[in-house]
Design brief:
This protein is mainly alpha-helical. It has helices at about 10-25, 30-35, 40-50, 50-75, 80-95, 95-110, 115-125, 135-155, 165-175.
Length: about 180
Amino acid sequence: MGRQRTIDRDKVLDAAEDIVIKQGAAALTIDAVAKSMGISKGGVQYCFGNKEALIDAMFDRWSYSYDQIFNREIEKDDSPENRINAHRLATYEHDKTAIAKGAALMASLLQTPEYLESTRTWYRDRLRNLDTSTEQGKRARLMFLATEGAFILRYFGLMDIDDNEWQEMFRDMSS
């Protein structure tokens, strides 16, 4: 009797990301991932259950390093203003390859209503409890918008921003 083959979850996620990045969200199916991996559909389903769980795992993996940095910062100070600063730091320090993959996933998957809504909720949560009637709150909101603008411009390929310019932008935001 042969040894049972083990399916590497990370390699399945890599294959799923590759499909979304190269072919778009509509091409992401359990069958497409299985064919890409050379395994059965049941093998993919064994790892993730269904397509929604696979997509959730892709976002979880993408956001892992972001969440570590963000949570480290808010442990020091969980004020609404510092949560914005934690977002700036997490965006700045997040692994460049991971963030580029995440941007490609976001761009593709945001065309799906349920993922668009979860992203809207995520953004609303980042700005929750920020008092924009104060100068401090207004500056924090502006920092958030600048962070997101830099992220979108760089990682959606709308502007060439090299590492030096990226670092300079984030230094400017923290001033």
